[in-house]
Amino acid sequence: RSGYIAGMRDARFVASHWPREDPVGKLLAGTRLFGLQGLARVEAVHFDYDPERIAFSGEFFWHHSLEDDEHIHAFGVGTDAGCWLPIGYANGYVSTLLGTSIIFRELECRSTGASVCRVIGKAARDWDNVEEDLRYMQAEGFVGRQLLSSGGFTPGSTINDAYAAAMSEVGARVQSAKYLSGVSTAVASEA
């Protein structure tokens, strides 16, 4: 989920700083940001985007995935794909830019012995058995019970809702900490 939020933030940044950039340029900016952050070098094998239908599909190679490097170093080559953060990033970035759920799946991974990671992304509606993928983007599984019970959002809310509520809660806590810090300083100076 941290990957999804990072991708979502980057998509919002790109959209707000380059509002006139064509959608394909904004999509490709994500692959560059991905590389600049050291996650992996992205090679677009192909991708199609139809803005009229909000249709997206693409295949990408991820070279030198940092997450795979660390996984292989710690555990060796295994049987499960290891690029959870990059998958989350791609899901969050493209879904946020296009305003619809885009799901990426890793079909080949260096953590399983492949020479390169290969991912496919397309609209959630175009995947079979997408329920498991979508489950990772639901708020109720990872947001604190206090936030859920506070009425900020309901079970089934998207990760975007969870992120907004969590950031609001963090802001409130920061303000409380600043206030309490000022109070304790004043009390200490009076003593």
Provide a descriptive summary of the structure in words.
- The termini are far apart.
- The longest helix has 32 residues, at 159-190.
- The relative contact order is 0.13.
- It contains seven helices and four strands, in the order H-H-E-E-H-H-E-E-H-H-H.
- Strands 1-2-4-3 form a four-stranded antiparallel beta sheet, with helices on one face.
- It is globular.
- Helices cover 51% and strands 17% of the residues.
- It has helices at residues 2-17, 23-36, 66-75, 84-98, 131-135, 145-149, 159-190; strands at 41-50, 55-63, 102-108, 117-123.
- It is α+β, with helices and mostly antiparallel strands and 191 residues long.
- Helix 1 (2-17) packs parallel to helix 4.
